[in-house]
Specification:
about 130 residues, alpha+beta, Mannose-Binding Protein A, Chain A, four-stranded antiparallel sheet, about 30% strand, lectin, calcium, CLec_Tetranectin-domain, secreted
Length: about 130
């Protein structure tokens, strides 16, 4: 187990089971979390470090353009207006099939096909109290 990473508000957990994007979403939700949404550089760097130190190359994160092609949103439906970290030349989606997003161990994002299976990161809000 790669352990967990945490911020003041949330903790993050890499699930070491290969699942496609929708299965990843469901897995996190059933456990009371969401597919991880790196909404700022602090969280993105934390996740990239986590992925790299765990020895993985890529993981699904909670970003997609399934609803409207080219309009990427986080899994809570908030737009990517304040932060994104696309790899150079991405999102490319040459054939219109790359609607889901993976984070590479560099921390950069790449749009990829949703049916592919890989490890993924869930985020959980810490209980106040």
């Amino acid at each position: 187990i790669a352990g967990i990473r945490e911020t003041d508000e949330k903790f993050y957990y890499i699930v070491q089971e290969e699942k496609n994007y929708r299965e990843s979403l469901t897995h996190c939700r059933i456990r009371g979390g969401m597919l991880a949404m790196p909404k700022d550089e602090v969280v993105n760097t934390l996740l990239a470090d986590y992925v790299a130190k765990s020895g993985f190359f890529r993981v699904f994160i909670g970003v997609n353009d399934l609803e409207r092609e080219g309009q990427y949103v986080f899994t809570d439906n908030s737009p990517l207006q304040n932060y994104s970290n696309w790899k150079e030349g991405e999102p490319s989606d040459p054939y219109g099939n790359e609607d889901c997003v993976e984070m590479l161990s560099s921390g950069r994002w790449n749009d990829t096909e949703c049916h592919l299976t890989m490890y993924f990161v869930c985020e959980f809000v810490k209980k106040k109290g």
